[in-house]
Design brief:
GO terms for molecular function: DNA-binding transcription factor activity; sequence-specific DNA binding. Keywords: DNA-binding, Transcription, Transcription regulation. One of its GO terms (biological process) is DNA-templated transcription. With 300 residues, this protein is α/β, with parallel strands linked by helices. Helices cover 42% and strands 20% of the residues. The longest helix is centred in the N-terminal third of the chain and has 31 residues. The chain starts with 5 loop residues before the first helix and ends in a 5-residue tail after the last helix.
Length: 300
């Protein structure tokens, strides 16, 4: 005899498993009438009753039990075969390369540890990191997204704030001790203030702390990374934020002598070309990074 259509067996397996035409129709996204028609057609083709009704439920007959065991095994084998084929295709396909442009300090301190975690979760996506300090410096011929400390708007780009930043003093642990140890903001008069801007952020923080600005004790260092390294080495106190000093604070290379923090003025943003942000893998990476930033409440 000719076998009934495969879809009839699929409908039969669903009804047998759920015991109800309405529930099967909901799972299969068809009408109950269509399910009933498939069952009647299958029973007619086989010349045997497959169900009996008990109240509001359908119960398999002996013939139905025999058929259901075979059909269920067949459906499982088909599903396993499909999964195996898809897996082989994914393994054979070359990994997709995504490129992130960001600042060196932010990339090393916050981004890279998270990218290794993303790579472990998504082995089919390769990642590359290139550097740029501002949106105007990003090589968009290479970059899929950028993570930057900058200020919008940017023509032709999509962007979202990664997280609002706050600045606070950081120093090596040794500066907390000794006769001039940092115990209160007024103790900063005995230490160099390291900054990569013109001193505006330090002035803002000191105003909030009600401490005068010791202008002759500050040191202007153009590179934020060098300023942080000077703080690690004990040459002074720098202002940093939750992102760039995340690992230094967690691992004890830097400490926060005071809890007071002030808004940074700028924030970190996630940027992408409008035509690239909806590429599924790019959108996946953006969503993942935004979620990581939202979870990371260190120092908040």
């Amino acid at each position: 005899m000719n076998l009934p259509p495969l879809n009839a067996f699929r409908v039969f397996e669903t009804v047998a498993r759920l015991g109800h035409v309405g529930a099967a129709a909901a799972e299969l996204h068809v009408t109950p009438g269509a399910v009933s028609q498939q069952i009647r057609s299958l029973q007619s083709s086989l010349g045997v009753e497959l169900f009996t009704r008990q109240g509001r439920h359908l119960v398999l007959t002996q013939a139905g039990l025999t058929l259901h065991g075979a059909v269920a095994r067949g459906m499982r084998e088909i599903g396993e075969g499909v999964r195996q084929v898809v897996s082989e295709l994914q393994q054979a396909a070359p990994p997709l390369l995504l490129t992130i442009s960001t600042e060196p300090v932010f990339g090393a301190s916050w981004l890279l540890p998270r990218l290794f975690a993303f790579r472990a979760e998504h082995p089919h996506i390769r990642l590359r990191v290139i550097s740029a300090a501002k949106a105007a410096e990003v090589d968009w011929k290479k970059a899929d997204i950028a993570l930057l400390y900058d200020a919008p708007p940017w023509d032709g780009l999509w962007w979202r704030p990664l997280r609002s930043l706050h600045m606070f003093p950081v120093c090596c642990p040794q500066l907390l001790h000794g006769p001039n140890g940092l115990r209160q903001p007024a103790d900063l008069v005995h230490h160099r203030l390291l900054h990569e801007d013109d001193g505006t952020l330090w002035r803002r923080w000191l105003v909030e702390a009600r401490v005068p600005y010791p202008g002759d004790a500050d040191v202007h260092i153009e590179s934020f990374g060098i300023a942080l390294q000077a703080a690690r080495d004990g040459y002074g106190v720098a202002l940093s934020d939750e992102f760039n000093s995340y690992r230094d604070l967690e691992e004890g290379r830097l400490v926060r002598p005071f809890a007071l923090k002030v808004p940074a003025g700028l924030d970190y943003y996630c940027l992408s070309l409008e035509e690239r942000r909806n590429v599924p893998e790019v959108a996946q990476l953006i969503d993942w990074l935004m979620d990581q930033a939202a979870r990371d409440l260190f120092g908040a």
